[in-house]
């Protein structure tokens, strides 16, 4: 007992050390990546409360126990201190907006406005769409400085395979695996398929892989590469001009000739409309000439979309759901950065 008392007693150095910079300390703690949770309960008056918390942690498996902390200045403090039960929701990757809503200093009624939920143990509100839900009985409450620490016994839980939302250095993120589960073919130079490979090479290789899939799709529909691109582009947005289609094709290293437009029109896949009144502006090169899909062309686009979904599902199966989501997120960010350089958009 005496040794424990001495060990817990602050030493002379800690008593004389200068106080920590709270802002810098917060930033240092932010480098620790955590999951994101929303903890909910219900007051004695029946009103729901909920807060976003990343202080959640597991404590014990037997008995099953978890803990989290709540700021003493929180409006929800009195309810959580008196609640017999509360529910922890480990948020899914697409619930960033929900997290932000429950992180605001607003009333419980405002936070739950329009949010679909059901009652759990102790009438604690249960949110939908989460990766995991834990229903807990309050086991104890401890002092934690400017926070209280709530310890709960888990009495029921539900989970799904949806990737969780994570929080790191003040931003939401997606957790992906760094494990190399797919090995290169025998004899393959590892530099061709490693994390150290050139980014340009990897992007080009990925494009060529999907381009090959597109060529298979085009061939099955009796379309050449450029005709396949035209139909795809019109499926994304109709009423394009010949000039716009030519510009989009140029970014993929191809060119649109009048013969491609004529062939698609002859097959009744597209129709050409000219709304000019000036004779000098007529013809495909004029910006007043618009190209649309026919009903048959729209059916072809629907088939293309179905096959594209199958390709994405196969990629998700091979890469993993979180990795596919992260890939889409990063590519979208890359395109947003560079899209101002492209005069015509796909959508």
UniProtKB/TrEMBL annotation:
Where does the record place the region Disordered?
1-20
- Name of this chain's protein: Flavin reductase like domain-containing protein
Q: Which domain of life is it from?
A: Bacteria
Question: Which family does this protein fall into?
Answer: Belongs to the non-flavoprotein flavin reductase family.
Cross-referenced PANTHER family: FLAVIN REDUCTASE, FLAVIN-DEPENDENT MONOOXYGENASE, REDUCTASE SUBUNIT HSAB
One of the record's GO molecular function terms: FMN binding
Keyword Cell membrane present in the record's keywords: the answer is no
Residue ranges of domain Flavin reductase like in the record: 29-174
The organism's lineage?
Bacteria, Pseudomonadati, Pseudomonadota, Gammaproteobacteria, Pseudomonadales
Keywords tagged on the record = Oxidoreductase
Keyword Oxidoreductase included in the entry's annotation: yes
């Amino acid at each position: 007992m005496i040794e424990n008392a001495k060990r817990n007693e602050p030493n002379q150095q800690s008593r004389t050390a200068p106080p920590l910079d709270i802002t810098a300390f917060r930033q240092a703690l932010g480098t620790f990546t955590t999951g994101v949770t929303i903890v909910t309960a219900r007051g004695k008056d029946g009103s729901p409360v909920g807060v976003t918390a990343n202080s959640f942690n597991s404590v014990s498996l037997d008995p099953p126990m978890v803990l989290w902390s709540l700021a003493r200045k929180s409006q929800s403090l009195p309810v959580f201190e008196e609640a017999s039960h509360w529910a922890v929701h480990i948020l899914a990757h697409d619930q960033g907006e929900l997290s932000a809503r429950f992180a605001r200093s607003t009333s419980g009624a405002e936070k739950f406005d329009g949010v679909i939920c059901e009652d759990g143990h102790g009438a604690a509100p249960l949110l939908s769409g989460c990766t995991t839900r834990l229903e807990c009985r309050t086991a104890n409450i401890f002092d934690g400085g400017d926070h209280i620490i709530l310890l709960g016994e888990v009495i029921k839980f539900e989970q799904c395979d949806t990737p969780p939302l994570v929080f790191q250095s003040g931003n939401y993120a997606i957790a992906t695996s760094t494990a190399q589960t797919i090995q290169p073919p025998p004899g393959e130079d590892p530099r061709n398929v490693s994390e150290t490979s050139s980014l340009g090479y990897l992007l080009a290789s990925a494009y060529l892989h999907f381009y090959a899939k597109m060529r298979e799709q085009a061939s099955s529909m009796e379309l050449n590469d450029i005709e396949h691109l035209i139909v795809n582009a019109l499926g994304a947005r109709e009423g394009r001009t010949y000039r716009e289609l030519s510009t989009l094709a140029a970014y993929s290293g191809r060119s649109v000739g009048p013969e491609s437009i004529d062939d698609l029109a002859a097959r009744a896949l597209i129709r050409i409309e000219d709304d000019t009144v000036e004779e000098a502006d007529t013809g495909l090169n004029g910006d007043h000439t618009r190209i649309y899909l026919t009903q048959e062309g729209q059916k072809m686009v629907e088939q293309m979309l179905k096959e594209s979904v199958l390709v994405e599902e196969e990629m998700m199966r091979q890469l993993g759901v979180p990795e596919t989501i992260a890939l889409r997120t990063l590519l979208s960010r890359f395109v947003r950065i560079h899209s101002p350089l492209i005069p015509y958009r796909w959508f």
